[in-house]
Specification:
Layout lengths: L3 E7 L2 H14 L3 E8 L3 E8 L1 H15 L3 E7 L6 H6 L9 E7 L3 H13 L3 E7 L7 E7 L1 H16 L4 E8 L11
Antiparallel strand pairs: 1-3, 1-4, 2-3, 5-7, 5-8, 6-7
Helix pairs in contact: 1-2, 4-5
């Protein structure tokens, strides 16, 4: 059974924590992450079956009130999204690296999911807001053609909302730059 994820972003940290408490009390979901982000916001991702996640996100929206920035649900998320959010893994070999940068958090998760579903690439990291001034980025690796196609998929997902900052493909990355990817 595939997992669903829901994301809610708040302008208020205190309201965010309060709303997330209500989200997990009223729906059978697990917290993937619930944390402060730059600049002084709160962001939560929950997972579970589609109905529970939809219910949880609706509750989050209701309790957020005027502090709601954005919310989204991905009904069947690519399983590789979870380790990328958790901090990433450095692959042993990289033919090419893709980096996508966005002005928002939840839409970047949607973009990363679209990449992982569209092409055969391996996620490195999905960083959401911490130490980034409210921005986010997704790094992934694969062969040059797959990474290039993945970049196009992510750009298409982010440009719909005008949230793309930049995206790059690095063919044959130098071993000296690889440690900076995590």
């Amino acid at each position: 059974m595939s997992k669903s994820i829901g994301m809610v972003e708040f302008t208020s940290i205190s309201r965010g924590i309060y709303a997330v408490d209500q989200m997990v009390k009223t729906a059978e979901v697990e917290i993937v992450t619930a944390t402060t982000t730059c600049p002084g916001k709160y962001f939560a991702i929950v997972t579970g079956d589609v109905a529970s996640v939809n219910n949880s996100v609706e509750v989050g929206e209701q309790y957020a009130k005027e502090y709601l920035i954005d919310s989204m649900v991905i009904p069947s998320v690519a399983p590789e999204v979870f380790p990328a959010i958790a901090g990433g893994v450095m692959p042993e070999y990289m033919d090419a690296v893709g980096i996508v940068e966005a002005f928002a958090l939840a839409p970047m998760v949607v973009a990363a999911d679209s990449v992982l579903k569209a092409v055969n690439v391996e996620p490195i990291e999905l960083r959401l807001g911490n130490g980034l001034g409210g921005k986010s980025f997704f790094t992934f690796t694969g062969d040059v053609a797959a990474v290039t196609a993945g970049i196009e998929s992510a750009k298409n997902a982010l440009m719909l909302k005008g949230l793309l900052v930049n995206a790059e493909v690095i063919p044959s990355p130098s071993p000296k730059v690889l440690p900076s990817l995590l």
